Amino acid sequence: MAVRLHTQMMIECMAYLRYKRQFNIVVDEYKNCDVIGLNDTSDFIEVEIKTSFADLKNDKKKPKHTWYGELKSRKFKPGKFFFMVPEELFEKVKPYVDEHFPYAGIMVWKPGKNKGRKFVADVKVKKHAKDLNSKKLTDKQFKDLLKRLVSSIVISKLKLI
Predict the structure, then answer these.
(1) Contact 96, 72 (CB under 8 A)
(2) 80-86 and 43-49: which strand pairing?
(3) pLDDT above 90 for 86
(4) How far apart are CA 96 and CA 99, in angstroms?
(5) 3-state secondary structure of 30
(6) d(Cα 47, Cα 121) in Å, to the nearest integer?
């Protein structure tokens, strides 16, 4: 059940970034990120999907959070970082995020509704993320991101066959 919820949240996050926020490129499962949204090579965000409080607490072990917390880290990082959680978890996770991930924003998710062929994602930013002072994407990083995008499209089409 948790895997299905995670997948649904990921798809709705991607729809939100692409259609509501008008990001040019939205990619799932790129490197160790759930969702990346890119407007141009210098403006992009990462969204980490969390389906439970325990799932969020486990994220603290990831090395990227050390880099994201350092203002002058040499490691590459997104412009902004968000956690996306189900709406009912927001009040529980906010104090934890404030203490352990002060740079992170929080998006809340409610199951979207299908309206005919039009899909409506219900995602809202409840806590804004701080700027992580990201560097521009290198050409190689941009090409890698595009490769992942094309792979997602191919995989989606293969599932339809």
Answers:
(1) no
(2) parallel
(3) yes
(4) 5
(5) strand
(6) 15
**Token pair of 121, please?**
């994602």
More confident residue, 75 or 110: 110
Chain Cα centroid distance, residue 93: 16
Q: How far apart are CA 59 and CA 84, in angstroms?
A: 13
One DSSP character per residue, 78-140 reads: -SEEEEEEEGGGHHHHHHHHHHH-TT-EEEEEEEEEEETTEEEEEEEEEEPPPP--PPPPPHH
Q: What angle do CA 45, 156, 49 make, to 5 degrees?
A: 35
The structure tokens listed for 139 are 């050409």
Examine the pLDDT at 3 and tell me if it is beyond 80: no
pTM above 0.85, yes or no: no
Q: Is the pLDDT of residue 92 over 70?
A: yes
What single DSSP character describes residue 23?
-
Q: Rounded to a whole number, what is the largest CA-CA distance in the chain?
A: 48
Instruction: Give whole-number Cα distances, 92 to 10, 55, 98, in Å.
Output: 21, 13, 11
**CB–CB of 84/9 below 8 Å?**
yes
Q: Smallest Cα–Cα separation from 122: which of 132, 111, 114?
A: 111
What's the token pair of residue 135? 């560097």
